[in-house]
Amino acid sequence: MKARHIFVIVALLALSTAMAEDTGVAWDSLSAQQQQVLDRFADSWDSMPPGRQQRLSTGAHRWAGMTPREREAAQTRFALWRELPDERRERIRERYGVFRDLPAAEQRRIRENFRHFRQLHRDRRERLRDRYRDMTPEQRQRLHDRMQQRRRISTRD
After folding, report:
1. Rounded to whole angstroms, how far apart are CA atoms 57 and 140?
2. Residues 30 and 64 sit within 8 Å (Cβ to Cβ)
3. In a shared domain, residues 6 and 69
4. Is residue 22 within 8 Å of residue 50, measured between CB atoms?
5. How many CA atoms lie within 13 A of 141 on its CB side?
6. Is 0.85 surpassed by the pTM of this model?
7. CB neighbours of 66 closer than 8 A, spacing ≥ 6?
8. Is the pLDDT of residue 100 over 70?
């Protein structure tokens, strides 16, 4: 297949994806379970931005597939989220945006490191947190630089 044909196919796929996001999600296209979860949005659904419709429909689909225990955990996390000050939530959203823009391999590495950190004994985690909090900005930068260098070396091996 010629490069021009591939370009046209990719462009058409991108355009169709963008058009799907622009048109949003029709209320009637939602499953009965999604409509039940999103019932409080039924009257305002058509006036909602397409991106929000997409996020809500995806969330409702995930919610419908959760076990009662998973739903309870999600409700607890959401309640904790709502209690956070607006500035803290905004900072978390910004950091998540940075994380989401990272390459998949880097996201995987961060998730693995976080999983490892969570498996440490609570006292060890607290000592590490305290040690990091007590560092000067320069010390934190040096630590960050050393970790970056170790990553580069380990990816070459």
Report:
1. 41
2. no
3. yes
4. yes
5. 3
6. no
7. 74
8. yes
